[in-house]
Amino acid sequence: MTEISAFFSLLRLVRNFATLYKYIMAATKALRTLLQELRFANPCACIKDSLAAHYILAQYKKFCTTDQQLCKARDEALFLGQTYLTYLSSLRKYNELHKEYRGRGERSVKETADMVGFKLPTDPE
Fold first, then answer.
1. What is the 3-state secondary structure of the chain?
2. Which of 14, 78, 104, 113 shows its CA 20 to 30 Å from the CA of 62?
3. Alpha carbon distance 9, 68 (integer Å)
4. Which of 64, 51, 57 shows the shortest CA–CA distance to 31?
5. Is the pTM of this model over 0.90?
């Protein structure tokens, strides 16, 4: 009987470890991607000197718990980090689209066709 209970306690421990590992990997991926978006937002500045990067790393270290308890603050911090990540990536994509398609007045038919990916028919001479 003790061997069975020891087996089940070991199984629970492995499950808790797997859950914690998945969370840590998700948080680490969010952190790396968030720092990458900060680099995209300001390509000429060093990320080490950025106040935003220092704040993000401090928050990551603050909420990176190693115990096996349910921590709502940790989950909220991950959600907030993913929200910032979505905001930064959406802002970067918006700026790219705005830069490419911003209004420049009237365009020729050929420029408009090239912009949307169409080819104009050639006139036979």
1. CHHHHHHHHHHHHHHHHHHHHHHHHHHHHHHHHHHHHHHHHCCCCCHHHCHHHHHHHHHHHHHCCCCCCCCHHHHHHHHHHHHHHHHHHHHHHHHHHHHHHCCCCCCCHHHHHHHHCCCCCCCCC
2. 14
3. 14
4. 57
5. no
